[in-house]
Design a protein that fits this description.
Blueprint (H helix, E strand, L loop, with lengths): L2 E5 L4 H17 L2 E8 L10 H26 L7 E7 L2 H11 L4 E6 L4 H6 L3 H8 L4 E5 L9 E6 L5 H15 L2 E8 L4 H19 L5 E6 L3 H6 L1 H4 L4 E6 L4 H6 L3 H8 L4 E5 L6
Parallel strand pairs: 1-2, 1-4, 2-3, 4-5, 6-7, 6-9, 7-8, 9-10
Antiparallel strand pairs: 5-10
Length: 280
């Protein structure tokens, strides 16, 4: 993990994400790319071309000044190399493009909860980023209190990309000094088959990651989504990790992804690793 991208809008939540990324970068020996997207004035009906150009240049300088001030405040001793970059809208496309072009290994960003109309109509930037990014994203929720990450939970659906996603999860957990528990939500009435499948899965994973110590827990729940939302009450954790499955064309219109839903409700850092299409 050499490069961490941190998008910022200068909000308190984004500041929490940057603080988390700085701590992670210190421990991993990584550098950080701090990225802000602004909206330039481009309409031909507003001032002259020269005036618009000067306005936009001044806006970029002001944004850069804010970013340098943020870095000086949160990274006063320059323990982590942080580059400040200013980009233009559209936000989602440019952040994803910048991350891929500059070989970011991880995106760390803040997320805010959403529900009801806000959730169904506009969602959050973080939720939309999850769907667009081919790079793992670590979401830091506004409720996160900055406590040390000591235990990570990886929620499995026996996805073909689990090994790749677990590799990313264990890499971050190891840097943070956290233990990792692999959890499967099973439905009542299928306990015998679920136990057998889970034991077979656990054997495969243990063999692949030996000698890394891993724990395994099978949790029963009538509804997977509700059980996942309440998982912290059953297995307290400091970070949750999941695979983001690519949706089909129709699903993208009519179905909310499970990882996207969790980005709205999580109160602990959430690591989302996109599926590796080569494993499918």
């Amino acid at each position: 993990m050499k490069r961490i991208l941190v998008p910022t809008d200068f909000s308190a939540t984004a500041e929490k994400a940057l603080l988390f990324a700085i701590d992670l970068a210190k421990k991993a020996g990584s550098s950080i790319m701090l990225y802000h997207v602004y909206t330039p004035v481009e309409s031909v009906f507003i001032e002259s071309f020269a005036e618009r150009k000067l306005h936009n240049e001044n806006m970029q300088l002001e944004v850069m000044r804010q970013m340098h001030g943020l870095v000086e405040t949160l990274n006063p001793n320059n323990e982590v190399a942080i580059a400040s970059i200013v980009g233009k809208v559209p936000l989602l496309e440019n952040v994803v493009r910048f991350a891929e072009k500059n070989h970011a290994d991880l995106i760390v960003m803040g997320t805010q909860g959403a529900s009801g109309i806000k959730k169904s109509l506009i969602g959050t930037v973080a939720a939309r980023m999850i769907e667009a990014s081919r790079i793992p994203i670590l979401l830091i929720p506004e409720q996160y209190n900055g406590s040390r990450i000591q235990s990570a939970v990886f929620a499995t659906s026996y996805h073909p990309s689990d090994i790749d996603a677990l590799t990313a999860t264990l890499g971050i957990a190891n840097v943070l000094g956290a233990s990792t528990t692999i959890v499967r939500i099973g439905l009542p009435g299928e306990e015998s088959k679920e136990q057998q499948d889970f034991e077979s899965y656990a054997t495969h994973v243990k063999e692949h990651f030996d000698p890394i110590p891993l724990q395994f827990r099978l949790v029963s729940g009538h509804d997977i989504q509700t059980t996942m939302e309440e998982l912290y009450d059953h297995i307290p954790y400091d970070m949750l990790a999941m695979v983001r499955r690519k949706k089909s064309f129709l699903e993208s219109f009519f179905l909310e992804s499970f990882t996207e839903h969790m980005s709205y409700v999580t109160r602990q850092p959430l690591l989302v690793v996109p599926e590796n299409e080569e494993t499918l």
